Amino acid sequence: MVCKYKSRHYFSLFWSRLINPVVVAPTVAAVGLSFYSYGFPQIGTCLEIGAVQILLVIFFSLYLRKISVLGHRVFLIYAVPLGLAITWAVAFLLTAVGVYSYKGCDVNAPVSHIISDHCRENIPKMKHCRVDALHALGSAPWFRFPYPLQWGMPVFHWKMALVMCVVSIISSVDSVGSYHASSLLVASRPPTPGVLSRGIGLEGLCSLLTGLWGTGTGSSTLTENVHTIAVTKMGSRRAIELGACVLIVLSLIGKVGGFIASIPDVIVAGLLCFMWTMLTALGLSNLRYSEAGSSRNIIIVGLSLFLSLSIPAYFQQYGIIPKSNLQVPSYFQPYVVASHGPIRTNFGGLNYILNTLLSLHMVIAFLVAVILDNTVPGSRQERGVYVWSDPETAKREPAVAKDYGLPFRVGKLFRWVKWVGL
After folding, report:
1. Averaged over 158-180, what is the pLDDT?
2. CA dihedral angle for residue 185, residue 280, residue 160, residue 368, rounded to 10 degrees
3. C-alpha dihedral sign at 156, 160, 162, 166
4. I need a surface site. Which of 132, 167, 216, 317 has the fewest CB within 10 A?
5. pLDDT of 217-228, one tens digit each?
6. Which of 273, 276, 360, 345 is nearest to 313 (CA)?
7. Which keywords fit this entry according to its UniProt record (predicted)?
8. What is the DSSP-derived secondary structure letter of residue 60?
9. 322-356: buried (b, 16+ CB within 10 Å) or exposed (e) per residue?
């Protein structure tokens, strides 16, 4: 039994021993900080809407957070949706009354075709402030049924595949910290290494499905939802299952997607400024499981965060970026610079992989943190080593099996898959 257990959970145990709060904190925080160049520069394109968006969310989430309506702290729980609804309505009204309509200017006209200086000056404001700049709501069908491979067969490039494998592994660091924090918030025992492995495996499976459906995004644990559990005191799995069903139904209604797509870019940037701020803060909050005042931990976290911003800046600013790439958003810059970074060996594929990986903030934060935390001496208490439940003990506790068992007795269908168990 012992040999079987060791062979079954070897990788999970190895991975969970490497990942501790001192590693999770800077890695997750670096993800939020990496988008700093996108936030306010985008808001500045329509300051009268973007600034109001940020101020409303701050006002609701901080100054009105203790006000209860029918026993619920509405402003704290729904700070982001309320701020979005108000600024979206303001943008809609300003668009409807013609504030962002300029005579003779077409928002869809190519830049090269715009001759008037008046239009050159005002078209950027039209693109970022109007709610109908993309005509998404009017052109969207009422019902649309997505299906696998709807955009054609997947294209495989081995260089990008290796990059994404590394990024996926580092993304799992966020999941490890979120699993542990969630178990504490719902007053349950920490998950076992098997549950940890199953969670990360299911994230990979969901990413495979999103690739087949062509969504353009992967699937991973959302750290902000851990904060949602803390605020709402709602840790029911049934609520998540019901919410998932509602979202699946809404995804079939094209007008819902068109309505969401009508959100001006500046409002999206305002929302993401708050969300990335939360991501950064929640990442650093993992330090509460360790000795945050330890000089060892301060140096490791500080170095990880600073180098995660500084080293990618060096790689992204190395050489001269071709003029054709000047309009590429900042969050795509790592892929733009991959072909002309400072690493130039005789192997083009190796140059691409290393230049791209070292241009990613979370990669640098993870590498610095995991190397230093696992080589610099420190006690388990100082490092805040995560404690995982023993599988054999968990199996004998009905409450633990209920908390971590797959819903609707799905687990019985996958008994042959070792990583779905406790």
Report:
1. 85
2. -100
3. negative
4. 216
5. 778 888 777 877
6. 360
7. Membrane, Transmembrane, Transmembrane helix
8. I
9. eeeeeeeebeebbbbbbebbebeeeeeeebbbbbb
Mean pLDDT of 166-182: 86
* pLDDT reading at 418 higher than 70: no
Q: Which residues pair with 253 in a beta bridge?
A: 143
Helices (H), 155-253: 158-185, 193-213, 223-232, 237-251
44 band by pLDDT with thresholds 50, 70 and 90: confident
Rounded to an integer, what distance in angstroms lies between the CA atom of residue 300 and that of residue 5?
A: 34
**Dihedral sign for Cα atoms in the order 205, 208, 210, 213:** negative
CA distance 154 to 227: 36
For every residue of 6-48, DSSP letters joined together read: HHHHHHHHHHHHH--HHHHHHHHHHHHHTTHHHHHHHHGGGHH
Query: Are 190 and 386 a contacting pair, CB within 8 Å?
Result: yes
How far apart CA 158 and CA 123 sit, in angstroms, is 40
Domain residue limits, the chain: 2-137+147-391
pLDDT digits (tens, 9 = 90+) for 103-124: 667 666 555 556 566 666 667 7
Instruction: Say how many CA atoms lie within 13 Å of 373 toward its Cβ.
Output: 34
**CB neighbour burial string for 65-98, b if at least 16 within 10 angstroms, e if fewer:** eeeeeeeebbbbbebbebbbeebbebbeebbeee
